[in-house]
Each structure stands twice: as structure tokens, then as C-alpha cells.
Amino acid sequence: MQNTIKPNKRLLSLDVFRGATVAAMILVNNPGDWGHIYAPLEHSEWNGCTPTDLIFPFFLFIVGVSIVFALDAKKKILENHLSLTRIILKRTVILFCLGLLMSLQPYFDFATVRIPGVLQRIALVYLASALIFLYAIPQNIFKIFIVLLSSYWLMMILIPVPGFGAANLEMESNLGAWLDRTLLTENHLWILSKTWDPEGILGTLPSIASGLFGVMMGSILRTESRTADNKVAWLFAFGFIAFLLGLTWGLFFPINKSLWTSSFVLYSGGLASMGLALCYWLIDVKGFTKFTKPFVIYGVNAITVYFVSGIVARSMNLLKTTLNGQEVSWKNFLYEQFFTPYFSPNNASVAWAISFVLIWYIILWAMFKRNIVIKV
């Protein structure tokens, strides 16, 4: 008998994949000491890709898959898509405003607020991917995906950069960095650089392609005529092909998370597709579910825990107390009292991050037990 799974059934594997991704996001965002981090838990300085660099594109891929499962049935039932469009626009505004709120905290200085950001990019990718899925036929979604990747590549390697000359892919003198400084000014960019932003304007185009990759793979999972084994095979095949194409393209358009290069989209999307294929086969097809609950608990409130944990982390850095006669933040106080005396510097840093993830798991577990799901 062929394995079949009803397309309307909620995919446990998708919740697990989402939960694992957001837990990893919180882990890498909250080391005890930014000066002592294991290499896999850091972003690449520029070209190249670490495991940490894969977390954000994995999440955008998941956004794309989720769009299919959230909108597909409604899209087929409703002839008029205006009501769905209003829902998409509302969610986009909420996500974008939450991102701005994180940037404004704690001083709420609108003159220097960072306008780009993680939640802001998620909002824009969600908006574009959802509207494309809603209004475009499947064949055109793939064409849009190709156009986004190829046009971004051509812009980055062909268009001269005002004030710098020929097109280039350097940190401060590439076309994207120039556009960010021109449109947003240095006051509204990433505080650690002020001259470019890893979630900048031009890089949003290929990041939309990351969302569309998820839409295309989600459409495979939603197809009723396919068997479960067939879905696994196609997700893995498309993922492996994209992975190889990303590596090949990366030889002359380097894999770079900060620029969100086209090669990075294919490389990370391919790995995400193969990862979801594995989760789907293990969890939804073979029924190995005993290990899934912690990830599901993280997955059902993913945006909420990302937002609130970020606010809490910043607050802990701002609130002050006294340690050995000196004023220190609450974070440093706890870190110096309970972690640095007992671990090496790198281990203390990662132990703090793991503790942060576990504390949020306890909070999310309590919410899960009470069926509290905050939808954004």
C-alpha cells in the first residue's frame, strides 16, 4: 500500500522544523559573551556560510511553506481574494511594526531607529510571497523566483556604484550598501556598521526568493495526488539540485548571508528543503514523534517568543545593579555569578545561551499547556 497523508492535515514536521529554527535563532542571538563564541555559532564575517547563517533563510523558507498551508484551501474556495489580501496586509503591518518596536526599545528615538531588521524582512517576504501565491499560477511563481535571483545578480555585478566606480561585492561599497545609505541615511542602519545593513533594501529581493522556494516546496506537500514517498523524493531532489547550483553559482557570485546573494538563496533553500523532507519522512510518514514536543512548543509561538525574548534580553542589558563595587547590567551580574566561575570562557558563553533557550521553553510549555497561542 502506498503511503498517503491528507493534504489538509496539519504537518507536525513543519511545526517541529519551525520550532527548531526559532530555538536556534534565540540560541545564537544570546551568547553570554560576544567575545567568546564557538565558530559555528557565529555569522560569517563576509563570504562563506556557517550553521548560524542558515537559520534566517530556513525561517523564510518555512514562512513560504506555511503560506501554502494557510491560504491554499481558502484560495480555492473564495473567488474574490480581497478578504485574504486584507488579512495578508494586516499581518505584514503587525510584523513590521513589531520589528520597529524592537529597534526603538528602550529609548524610542525615532531619529536614529534602525528601519531594516529581522522582523521587518520577515514581514516583507511574507507580503510578497503570500500575494504571489494568491494571484500567480504555479508556473509563474517559478518564473518570478528565477527573475528575482538573476536580476539581483546582474544588478550587483553590472551596475556601477556612485562614488565608488565599478560594481563590486565589498562590504561598504556594493550597490546595496550605497542604496541603504542613500535612502535610509546612516542614522537608520545597523548600529554596528552605520554604512550598510544585513537586512537592507536591495537584499530584500533575493530574500523574497527564499520565501518563494518555500512556497514551491509547500505546494508539493499540499498536492493530494502525490503519495507521501513521492513528496519526500521531490523535496529532497529539488533541495539537492538547488544546493549544488548554489555551490556552483557561489564560485563567481559568492555565498554571502549579509548580501543574501542568489547563490546563498539556492544553497540555504536546498538545505532547508532536504531538512524538511527528512523531518516529514521521519515524523509524518514514519510516525517517529516522541522527540517532537519541545520543538512543537517552540514552533506554535515562534514569532512571539522571538519578539519577547529580544525585548527581555535588551532589558537585562539596560537594568543595572552592583557587583564588586561596580555598576553592571543584570545580565552581566547573573553571568559573572553563575556561569563564568564554573566554565571556560567559550563554554560559559554557550551555557548562558542554552539556559536562555531552556527558560523560554518553560514559559512556552506553560502557555502550551493552557492552549495559549498568540498568532501574529
Q: In this structure, how is the largest beta sheet organized? A: 2 strands, antiparallel
The dominant shape is globular
Strand order of the largest sheet: 1-2
Structural class: mainly alpha
Unreliable spans are none
Cα distance, first to last residue? 40 Å
Strand content: under 5%
SSE blueprint and pairings:
Layout: H1 12-29, H2 55-77, H3 82-104, H4 118-135, H5 138-158, H6 175-184, H7 204-222, H8 228-249, H9 262-285, H10 293-299, H11 302-318, E1 320-323, E2 326-329, H12 330-338, H13 345-369
Antiparallel strand pairs: 1-2
Transmembrane segments: 54-71, 92-112, 118-137, 144-165, 200-221, 233-252, 264-283, 295-313, 349-368
Organism: Pedobacter segetis
Keywords: Membrane, Transmembrane, Transmembrane helix
Structure in words:
This protein has about 375 residues and is mainly alpha-helical. It has a domain at about 45-285. Helices cover about 65% and strands about 0% of the residues. The chain has a two-stranded antiparallel sheet with strand order 1-2. Helix 1 runs antiparallel to helix 2 (about 55-75) and helix 1 runs parallel beside helix 11. The longest helix has 25 residues, at about 345-370. The relative contact order is 0.16. The model has no long low-confidence stretch (mean pLDDT about 95).
Key attributes of the depicted protein:
membrane, 376 residues, DUF5009 domain-containing protein, mainly alpha, single chain, transmembrane helix, transmembrane
Quick recap:
The chain has 376 residues and is mostly helical. The protein is 63% helix and 2% strand.
